[in-house]
Amino acid sequence: MINSFEKSNLWQLTLGLADNEDIERLRNSYFDFRRKIEPLVKNIEFEIPGLTIHDISHIDSLWEVADQIIGENYYLNPIEAYVLGGSFLLHDAAHVSAAYNGGFTALKERDEWKDLISLKYNNIEPEKNSELEKRALFEIVRQLHAKQARNLIQQSWKSETNQNYYFLIADEEIRDYYSEIIGEIAESHHWSAKKVNDSFSNRVINPPAFFKSTNWEVDPLKIAFILRTTDASHIDSRRAPTYAFNILTPQGLSKDHWHFQNKLGRAKLVDGENLRVSSGSSFNENERNAWWLAFDTARMINRELKDANSFLIESGRPPLAAKSVLGAESPKSFSKYVLANNWEPEDISVHVSNLPRLISTLGGKALYGENKYVALRELIQNGFDAIIAARNLGYLESFEGHITIQLNKIDNESWMLNISDNGLGMSRYVLSDVLLDFGKSLWNHDTVRYEHPKLAQTGFSSIGQFGIGFYSAFMISNHVKIITHRYKLKSDESNSHWKLTFPNGLEERPFISKPNEQEELKKHGTTISLRIENETLNDLLIPEEEEEEKEIISEEKMQGKLKKIIKWIFPACEIDIYLITKEKTEKIISANDWLEISDIDLLRRIHNKSKEKKLYPLKVNGRTVGRLRITSHYYFLINEYPPLIVSYKGARAGQIYGLDGLCLSFENNEKAERNDALPNYPLESWIDWAREIVSSESMLSIDLLLKLHILLPNDDLNVWFISNKRCSLSDIKNLLISSDEILFHIGDLEYDDDDSVRKTDFERDLMLENNVIVSHSNSVYHFHEAFTFDKVIEKYNLPRVSYAEKLEDLIKEIWGDFEEKEEYEVIGLVNNTEIMRRVTKYSKVTFK
């Protein structure tokens, strides 16, 4: 029985020809190859559920689809047809476990699997046979199948019948001569069109000596482009037959793929150059998603055809017959061939008519406010990410990597700011497609698995996460230039040095070029250069309180201001930062030097100016994560007591009132403004920190000791008063031993309108009786929406200290039985005038 593919024009003009020994040999080899592949691909629908049909019927159909791609003319010779047929057979064969040594289970030992699990599954292995595992296997096999197909053709299998080893191509001479190119072409169907062209445009394989025909050369470029366009164009119902559709019941996006292909007829070449894709039945309103997927697929085929023909013509090869897909230019045109019923397939999706304005708005003031220093922070942090990624991949040692900054005056109107890192650098693809894709972060996108294999599994966590930080550059400059040198040449690119230029901000199209010899970076990394006008630089570096200095713009002075603001932005920097001037190269921040510099130097760094205060280390598992002290945070003292700065990966990222100093956050910001980072430490760390403070400063102010007391409820702190003297419970114990009656007042003693004295006299001259004990209140102050130390402690749900209970426990210990009454009593005098307050009166009970 004749196979369907043998009826194709391509087969009949090549491997179907009779009376030729060489063709007979090739034909027999192909039939044997096909016979071995058939049981392999038969398992795809069971092992990778959801895929449209990838079995032998799909492979056989490609011969007929190829007729529509290359037309009726003689385009390939018999050996080229054999190589194409071999790549047809091979290209999807690695979708099954038998294609991998150790099966799918062995894939879990590969770096690609580890990267996937780290990036998408939070580094937690899905349970065996779970839906999550099936989804992960689907992704990893789709990623690896093309590359593995190339290996399959060199692989041998042991026959269980006769214990002999066999190959997919049994003919040893044909296998030795052509298997390598067949495998490479099969793999190439997952490459970019550019990589296909770069890999094959200069390669032609001469006829082998073992064939009698001497003019059958093999042109891999033609074959590779036929494979990719033919495979892309096979989207008819043979790939999604109705019976299989009903039995397999694919879900999600796979269901839409099955749905639209189930409705389509065979692609047909019309007018000698256009590929027509059409449906037999129309798509109803509830089938809209499938229709749009069909349209997107048609546009993809259209791009593939145009790219293929462009590269073929450029290299002097004859183009394919099919030049484009009818209707691919618009949904309305496409609906003439793939019908929509009772709805209009107009492209009315959400779009942005003025993209530069949107980006400049969202990537600038609307997101970050008027704080121009954000541009410095975002651009330097991008460098940090690149350096840390290079360390994780082993291209830098753990102690290597640095940022260098230069600021030089160009003329009387402008300056040039250069920010450089020696991190990974960027490929052309990242520079043009990822960096310029507003809102797309390389580090959090699937692209990173292909761009930097093994990085995700190292536990790398970027600072950048929103894909918009770079655009903050346009807050301070309209002329931006990026020069980058990737750590190693990417396989599908011809150069590792690239330059991206924005000649007029976001108003004019940027362009990519190769840097000249003087511009090229000697080592891997990236330099971003920004031309900044005088006024903008003044706003960036000179704060409002120093307005009078804005007329003094000497290069040396501005470099000093830049040095100061860099330290302010990155108080706990984990990477060395250098400032390069004409005179010298100065290390302005050493990695993690915040742990070693003096208290006053650290406070000056984070606040620009500060009074000298003692800071106390806060540790987690022996590691210092903060240097801080407790302060007042009354709203009217906000300027006198600046907040604690919270740092995430070196940069200031949050603040807490009621504390001063610096501490680290281990979690990234939830907002792009990077102002909401908070510490998340074990309670024990806060307790140890508080205990060190109270042991060093036992007479710390009452209000601060009260706030620390909640962390140290069993410690006897000097938070009490006997008469007008601060004391501890130990001092009260001595009073109880010598007294039979005491008066206890809870809360601050404040002036009352009923007092027969002036307020000023009350506050200055009140003298309490010797048996009056006062416990001040621990007040919680909230102002604006600032985060305070009280809120930090609240999350631990600690019980508030009951000073009445503490006092009563002590009274019972010393007196035994006692009486308790709430009464108005004289508690003291103001210039011989009695002052009365409601107090608790404790009296010792004595038995006669």
TrEMBL record:
Q: Which PANTHER family match?
A: HEAT SHOCK PROTEIN 90 FAMILY MEMBER
Q: Which residues form the HD-CE domain?
A: 49-306
Organism (species): Enterobacter hormaechei subsp. steigerwaltii
Q: Name one Pfam family in it.
A: HATPase_c_3
- Keywords annotated in UniProt: ATP-binding, Chaperone, Nucleotide-binding
| Name this protein carries in UniProt | ATP-binding protein
- Report which superkingdom the organism of origin falls in: Bacteria
* UniProt GO molecular function: ATP binding; ATP hydrolysis activity; ATP-dependent protein folding chaperone; unfolded protein binding
